[in-house]
Write a structure and sequence with these properties.
Blueprint lengths: L1 E2 L14 H6 L8 H8 L4 H7 L14 H5 L7 E6 L14 H10 L2 E6 L4 H13 L8 E5 L2 H8 L12 H6 L16 E13 L1 H4 L18 E4 L4 H9 L9 H16 L3 E5 L3 H7 L4 E5 H9 L5 E3 L5 E9 L7 H10 L3 H11 L14 H4 L8 H4 L2 E2 L6 H16 L1
Length: 412
């Protein structure tokens, strides 16, 4: 997939208004890459140890669906924890038309909380209460696939979903968000929105079109290549680069991918291992080509930059922010009712029109403006979705080995 045009409207008009630009469109939220950098932790295993709760055992047994939902009834109340600027708004930022419509149709009053700034810190806040089997103040929350969500599932902190209460999800969800590797069978989560990780470049600088992961290793671009300085997307994209699906990768594959990255680094091809600042380096010409998030590049294109975004021939990465119910939620029926509600195409369209993320409901294309309906920002083609992969799901033990292999690549 290559994007080199306006992603759905000109800058300053239509859905791409200032709030969307500030949000970074389809960029992943502040996540563990930043936490590792700021906290200086040795790796995911250290993070888990640091965030442990006294009396918390190892992985908990999953709750039985039938026993969890038995005798549960609608309360007419829903406390929803989400990320900032991740909901449609009305005349003021406090107004959310889709939530208002949900209340009108169901009688469920929603209190909406924009309290999640990144996955790990939010989980650290709610984890002691979950360990003590106490309510956390929210019936519904949005977490990104990755170590935090996996740990919440493994510890038994999420309510098992009763799919008999999710008929609209079953009918309208895109196949790409059904049965994901991080939650087989959607036992605990359903998708909220998604985004891509691939390659961005300036064709005037590179002098040619970019199509392959190997273009990031071209000596002609020495000192002008940007790579992510973190321990999730860098390794997973590198695995794709050596022809290995991350989901099925082994430690031997990890070592081969790391060696390829080390050779790239030692040859002087990498200018720097970047955080979010890679986009500024691309825009100024310090970088000619870089690993990139699709939304950052769409934003730059809308602002007039001569950049392109491509999912390389070897494949790209897809991440998903997911709706899930904490096991101690006082109002789980209200929460799962909302989860099914947002899979109605007209509701998904209301959300997509404002959020500008990849929607999990393809039929929402019939309920958005024509320019957005034609944009792969919201509606990737089936061929494009078939070329992107999920991150490798790691156990705590695997995480330790993973960190030992990949962290020296960008920390040395």
């Amino acid at each position: 997939m290559t994007t080199d045009g306006n992603p759905g409207g000109s800058a300053g008009s239509g859905p791409l208004h200032d709030a969307a630009l500030l949000r970074g469109l389809t960029r992943r939220r502040f996540n563990r890459r930043d936490l590792f950098r700021f906290a200086g932790l040795a790796g995911g295993a250290a993070l888990l140890a640091a965030c442990g709760v006294e009396g918390e055992g190892a992985d908990a047994d999953a709750m039985d669906v039938e026993s969890f939902w038995k005798d549960r009834t609608k309360a007419g109340v829903l406390d929803f924890a989400n990320w900032p600027l991740y909901m449609d708004v009305g005349d003021t930022d406090a107004e959310h038309p889709s939530l208002d419509l949900f209340t009108q149709e169901t009688g469920i009053k929603v209190t909406y909380h924009e309290v999640i700034q990144e996955n790990e810190s939010f989980f650290a806040q709610i984890r002691p209460s979950l360990a003590a089997n106490q309510p956390i103040g929210y019936d519904l929350m949005v977490l990104t696939n990755g170590i935090t969500l996996s740990r919440a599932i493994q510890l038994g902190y999420l309510a098992p979903l009763d799919h008999s209460r999710l008929p609209t999800f079953a009918k309208n969800a895109d196949p790409s968000v059904k049965d994901p590797s991080y939650d087989p069978g959607n036992q605990f989560t359903i998708a909220w929105q998604s985004g891509f990780t691939g390659i961005a470049y300036n064709p005037e600088k590179t002098g040619r079109e970019i199509t392959s992961f190997d273009d990031l290793f071209d000596p002609k671009f020495a000192g002008k290549v940007g790579m992510f300085g973190e321990n999730e997307e860098l390794p997973n994209l590198a695995l794709l680069g050596i022809g290995v699906a991350p989901e099925k990768s082994t430690p031997d594959d990890w070592r081969r991918a790391a060696q390829k990255l080390i050779e790239q680094r030692d040859a002087g091809i990498v200018r720097r291992y970047y955080d979010q600042s890679y986009i500024d380096a691309l825009a100024t010409g310090d970088l000619w080509i870089s690993m990139a998030w699709s939304g950052d590049i769409y934003q730059q294109i809308a602002a007039g930059s001569n950049l392109k975004f491509v999912v390389p021939d070897e494949g790209g990465l897809i991440w998903t922010d997911s709706l899930c119910i904490p096991k101690t939620a006082p109002h789980p029926v209200d929460a799962i009712t909302y989860m099914d509600f947002v899979y109605r195409p007209e509701i998904a369209g209301m959300l997509a029109e404002y959020i500008n993320y990849i929607t999990p409901v393809p039929a929402a294309a019939d309920h958005v403006s024509p320019d957005l309906a034609e944009s792969t920002l919201l509606f990737p083609t089936r061929a494009e979705l078939d070329r992107v992969h999920r991150f490798r799901v790691l156990t705590a033990e695997e995480e330790t080995e993973w960190n030992k292999i990949f962290q020296p690549v960008y920390q040395s």
